[in-house]
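Quick review question:
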């Protein structure tokens, strides 16, 4: 090879090899520091693509496992509510059997009947309030608002105001007021308040509920003693509560209510009755049209027939599990598997006040217990199914993670050996480049002669 000073071929060769060795050492260092075999697509594009999908599947399976656990928790809450309702039904059957016996008088049966009715209402309360994150589990969970809207409009309760004695209203049975079977929502549900003079110098307050635009229930209370000067007259600054439990309503009334009752009682013609007088008690309010309050909307949650849980990582029907629920309130319990029999709600408020009624109630409650057990067995079936789904998810997640590891995870021992080799090449390349850069110095001896 000719000796020259313009080009240093040896140095160029040493530099090229040193650059290549340094690049390989850097890539090996990146793999060791990240712990993965495929740092970028240039390392293994196919493995990177497959590994990315497997990683996404693994993370999705972890979330699906959480979904399964949440579903099991939800079903456990439902089962707990049903267990309580079962205890109530057992007590109700005990009361019905006791009331069926001829050794009791109607007075004792009345005591038993009071408890029976209260227990039935407790079933509805439990069914309405049992939910998981707002999802109803045992029945509709209505939360109905009273719609006063524009008080100048007829039918908006414009006369049910403090000046006439009405301070506040409270819905105590949202489940009842949330009832609606047509497409008008609950805006065609309302209640009407009337205070009338009755025979015997009595004053009767009557409240009528309307559901789906049709009169549904009526309850009356004797309020004669609330009049001014009466035994339960309301003093200034005080309040009283009138409970219309059959309608799921309470009314908080003030001292003006006593004056209103006195006005109705003072005019035995009925012209001054609340619900009739166009200028009730001189208030300037038309009680004939302003004694009705409508419902604004159902702000509660309704019982869904099915709730879908994502128990897989894909978007197919097999990746979802539909859990079905059935209502276990007083309207459904006792109806039988076909729902055509008498339910415990159909027993009315005189469920076991006579021996004959009590004997009928025994059969209805027995059927209600069977209905509840069918619903509870359905919940248990889904719980067992979810347990197996959780086991399958755990196994699938484990194997998917193993497959991703095989593709992407780094063999540290092998790569460390490779990195050591590259380090040696870098070190020797640096040394040889230094030697190559010294070779032109030999030409100075020829020039020195």
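Suggested answer, residue by residue:
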């Amino acid at each position: 090879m000719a000796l020259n000073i313009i080009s240093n071929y040896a140095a160029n060769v040493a530099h090229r090899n040193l650059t290549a060795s340094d690049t390989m050492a850097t890539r090996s260092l990146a793999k060791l520091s990240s712990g993965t075999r495929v740092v970028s697509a240039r390392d293994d594009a196919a493995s990177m693509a497959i590994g990315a999908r497997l990683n996404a599947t693994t993370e999705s399976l972890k979330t699906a496992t959480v979904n399964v656990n949440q579903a099991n928790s939800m079903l456990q809450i439902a089962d707990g509510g049903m267990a309580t309702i079962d205890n109530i039904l057992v007590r109700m059957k005990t009361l019905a059997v006791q009331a069926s016996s001829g050794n009791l008088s109607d007075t004792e049966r009345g005591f038993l009947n009071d408890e029976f009715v209260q227990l039935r209402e407790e079933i509805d309360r439990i069914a309405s309030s049992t939910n998981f994150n707002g999802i109803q589990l045992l029945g509709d969970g209505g939360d109905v608002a009273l719609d006063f809207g524009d008080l100048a409009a007829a039918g908006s309760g414009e006369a049910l105001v403090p000046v006439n004695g009405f301070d506040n209203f409270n819905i105590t049975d949202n489940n009842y007021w949330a009832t609606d079977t047509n497409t008008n929502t609950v805006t065609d549900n309302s209640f009407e308040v009337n205070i009338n003079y009755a025979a015997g110098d009595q004053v009767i307050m009557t409240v009528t509920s309307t559901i789906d635009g049709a009169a549904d229930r009526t309850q009356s209370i004797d309020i004669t003693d609330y009049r001014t000067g009466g035994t339960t007259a309301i003093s200034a600054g005080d309040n009283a509560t009138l409970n219309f439990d059959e309608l799921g309503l309470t009314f908080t009334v003030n001292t003006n209510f006593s004056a209103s009752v006195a006005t109705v009682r003072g005019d035995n013609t009925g012209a001054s009755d609340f619900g009739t007088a166009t200028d009730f008690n001189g208030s300037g309010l038309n009680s004939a049209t302003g004694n009705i309050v409508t419902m604004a909307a159902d702000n509660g949650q309704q019982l869904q027939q099915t709730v879908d849980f994502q128990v897989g990582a894909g978007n197919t029907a097999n990746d979802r599990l539909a859990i079905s629920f059935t209502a276990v309130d007083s309207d459904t319990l006792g109806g039988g598997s076909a729902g055509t029999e008498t339910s415990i709600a159909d027993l009315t408020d005189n469920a076991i006040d006579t021996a004959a009624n009590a004997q009928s109630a025994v059969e209805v409650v027995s059927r209600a217990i069977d209905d509840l057990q069918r619903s509870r067995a359905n919940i248990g079936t889904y719980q067992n199914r979810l347990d197996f789904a959780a086991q399958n998810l755990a196994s699938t997640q484990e194997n998917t993670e193993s497959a991703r590891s095989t593709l992407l995870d780094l063999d540290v021992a092998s790569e460390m050996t490779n990195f050591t080799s590259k380090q040696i090449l870098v070190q020797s390349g640096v040394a040889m480049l230094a030697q190559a850069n010294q070779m032109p110095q030999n030409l100075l001896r020829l020039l020195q002669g």
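Why it works: The first strand starts at residue 131 and ends at 132. The CA atoms of residues 89 and 369 lie 7 Å apart.
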